[in-house]
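agent> Task received from the user: take the single chain below, predict its 3D structure, and emit structure tokens. No templates, no multimer pairing.
agent> Plan: (1) validate residues, (2) run structure prediction, (3) serialize to tokens, (4) report one or two observations.
agent> Step 1 OK, no nonstandard residues flagged.
tool_call: predict_structure(input=
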Amino acid sequence: MWNFNFDWNNDENNEGKEDNTFNIKDIFNKTDKNMKSKFRQKQRKTALTIAFLYALISYYILLPSLNIHSRDAWIYVGTILAILVFVGGKSLRPYKAIRYTFAFMLVAFGILNLFGSKIIQSKNYAKLINPISSNFKEDIEELPIDKIPTLDRDSSIKLGARKMGELLDLVSQFDIDDTTYTQINYKDAPYRVTPLKYNSFIKYITNMREGLPGYLKIDIVDGDADLVKLENKIKYSKEDYFFRDIYRYTRLRYPFEILGQASFEIDEEGTPYWIISTYKTKVGFFDGLDVNGAILVNAVNGDHQKYSLEEIPTWVDRVHSAENIIDQLDWNGKYQGGYLNSIFTQKNVLRTTEGYNYLALDDDVYLYTGYTSVAADESNVGFVLVNMRTKDAKFYPVSSAKEYSAMESAEGAVQEKEYKATFPLLLNIDGKPTYFLSLKDNAGLIKQYAFIDAQNYQNVSTGASVTQALTNHRQANPMRTGDNPTENIEYLDGEGTIIDIREAVVDGNTYYYILMDNTNKVLNEENPNEIYVASIKVSNKLPFLKNEKIKFKYYKNGNINEIVSLEDNE
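)
tool_result: status=success, residues=570
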């Protein structure tokens, strides 16, 4: 028979006897150990499960770079370690190693962030971009009047929506991706391009096998919108789901790259691509991100290739993001004299103006923005053009009005109509920097155009067409120099047949816009049909000369041929 002995210390009394008793203390100890062991096993499994699920799900959703110079990588790994430390605790056998690694990462992360701060690294931030002073008149080619972009992004979006509404066979399933509208040069002409997107997740499920039918291409000079339908459809985009999402598709193939935003472009054959820039740090350990290459992904078949900066195909226009360039320009203007100078004395401290635009030059896209003093005055000390593919930057030290001052001036010229000005585009008009913008009504429709002298923003010329606005501008700002009004003007002889003639009244004066055939082809061998402008003062016969062959004298006023006299018809 068993004897239950509750005496914890009766070893002497039981000495020499057979031990048939239960020691309650041993029972409790064994039970406690078993319970603790089971709890630790459960705790360990829970921690490992949570850490694994977090690592998997967060990587799928957040797509962090696994590059040691990426903050995302440190946060990603640090969070996994934090789960193991605070959930797993001592149930994990390498608990101390995990805890010390986590603590080391926290300290190192703080120190490395401090090491890249602008207080310490201001001079290195200033060196990320180096605009070189240059001559505006020599560098910036004067655009022909039929090459001046007239549509901004908002107008392109409205035009795209209207175009999509015309396509009854597609509008129920697809829509325009209005978050893109990349401005590019396509066959030496400025366009905005954007892919289609699925109308909803259900429409994605029903159409995903075939893909998106094409992309929208808008000529931002004449407003011609064309939906390009592809034989092989787009399978990879920002609007796709799961593993065809362009960011997820690229990240899974390039896990260690620091990736930028995806930019939609087309090559010279019209094949759609996604351009994803890759970055490296140039300041400290995490900071001063700068482009070191790009990954090109064929939006149709998913073919992909990484290029260094020097290898990127020349048809690619957008490698550097506008936001990154603006940041670097601000750092360059702010920290040339060091961090303390940027805060206190602020000697020669500059910043970019409140907006930017794009300019097409030599089959490349350039970002334009003004440079102004931090004193927040109403003028620019100059402006900068930055190549969006190569990041070559040039600074033009031309004192000019700030863009928003020019916009307000243009709105004031038509204040009774309450039009709103678009952000201006900087052009070379007769060798002078000139702002060009559109004036829109409350519905967002373009009603007039304006040219503003960048150096004297009160000098505004408007017109219902670009040609009319430019003619008004040139009449208000003649090219003539010196005291002699005819100095430096070369008068030319011309002849031809008037194809069409249109009348316009500008500031109370009547002008005629004349389309001429078989004129002096030396001026424009590719396009013999020239446009001329003549005042009614030249001849009272002008309204009646359609289809007549005439001889005349004229001079080249930039892109405008201005007739100064007519010869009598024979």
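agent> Step 4: summary for the user.
The longest strand covers residues 492-506.
agent> Done.
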